[in-house]
Amino acid sequence: MDIVNEILEKEQKKAEKYKPITVEKHLDVEYDLGTLLVYDTNDLDSKLLDSNSNRDEYLQSLSRDNTQLLLNKIWELPTERIDEAIVVRLPQPTTVLPRSKPVPKPKPLTKWQEFAKAKGITKQKKDKLKWDEQLQKWVPLYGFRKAAAEKEKDWLIEVPQHMDPMMDMYEKKAGEKSEKVAKNELQRLKNIARSRKVKIPRVGLPITSDKASATQLSTAAVVAKASTASLGKFQDKLPKEQEARGKGVHELIPGKERKRRAPVPTPQVEKQNNLNLIDKILSKRPKIDMEKAVSQHIHKEQTQRSEEKKSMKPAKGKRKVKGNNATNFSAKKPKAGKGQRNMNKKTPGRKRR
Amino acid sequence: MKVLSEDRTKKLFEKLTKYIGVNVKLLIDRPDGTYCFREKKDRVYYISERLLQLAQTVKPDHLISAGTCFGKFTKTNKFRLHITALTYIAPYANYKIWVKPSAEQQFLYGHHVIKSGLGRITENTPKHQGVVINTMSDIPIGFGVAARSTTECRHADPLATIAFHQADIGEYIRSEDTLV
Predict the structure, then answer these.
(1) What is the largest CA-CA distance in chain B?
(2) Which parts of the sequence belong to the PUA domain (chain B) (predicted)?
């Protein structure tokens, strides 16, 4: 019996050392074993929390209890033994955790992609193989066997009439192709620069002048004019010359710094500025307008003449008779029976018109 | 809403003086508050300071127009008056042309005023003067440019153009979508 007591005593001592594995909770805690999470919805003891001496102890005991509950739950799961170690397969976590890394930014669109998006252009899928009538076989759109097919097709290239007969058309075609590739590469690099917000120098005027537009030519003229030692200050101006305008033109002209936009003036200042400007415009108009003066003169003459006519009204009944004139036609239709009639004269009625 | 550059302000006032002469001052120097010209997308708006301040609370992208559209600057940087400016031009116009009722419709369809449709014309109208076109009952229906001076009109033949059409109130219907 001594041994039994000893053992019991030992066990009791052990039990004292370790706290019990059962925990009493007013409300059941929520578990998410996948993330090893216990969520305790019970109220905290505010009295204990406020007291300085017991706060740590209280929190420690609370976390121990909850940890105990979690471990109890884990032990309920089916266990396995792998390499002398007891392991548990955790279920799928139910709590959604926020991601640790920022959301990746969408890839910046190329200029064409942006344009296509704005215009609603969608890419149309093309077949990889296309039937070639001339070769009577399927030719790939690009890639393997395309070049061979092309070579077979273009065994002879006609030289157009207007071109130099000694021109190597194959060389020309290869040149066009390489130019296209170079253009594409340039656009690719431009797109990269755009996405990284790197400033790239403007491409100036085209080398060949036969394709220059009116705006390009006017820009070139303005730039050339300003390209003197005195920045074009003493250059004469054409009568109706206009300064080239447009995006990026200003930066090309030598000596023209980027102007900072003037601050918005106060209403009073703006009003005064506008009034001054109007005064300037009104004063600029010619004092003697030749056209106006001439027309006024004509008007005066006309009124004078009409008044003269009115004052020189002819007396009644003294109207000048302008008869017997071949050119004198009256508006009225001549009627029979109004004039003098000679009965002896045989006339076939009135003259019909 | 941008403040007009000096160059553009000048162009605007030059155009307005063609129609209303010295009276342009009255548009700016008003007793009922300060009014100013503002520009948005090359269009010039005549707007009161109070309304402008309210308009500034709207995001520029969302603001289509504020105030009265007076006209627009063309791509070649010339100013073109719109019919919407008629309300402000008509009362101040120095030179007017009155058209006969029979010619009203012709004008409202965008044709020039011809001699046969001319009812009255202001005395001493010079050539190429901006004029407001009225009906015989004094309702302004548009504006144009005098093709002939008053004295020349007297001797013009019935089909001769008296005033070149610039804008008419028919545009409110005809070019509804491009006006503002």
Answers:
(1) 57
(2) 95-174
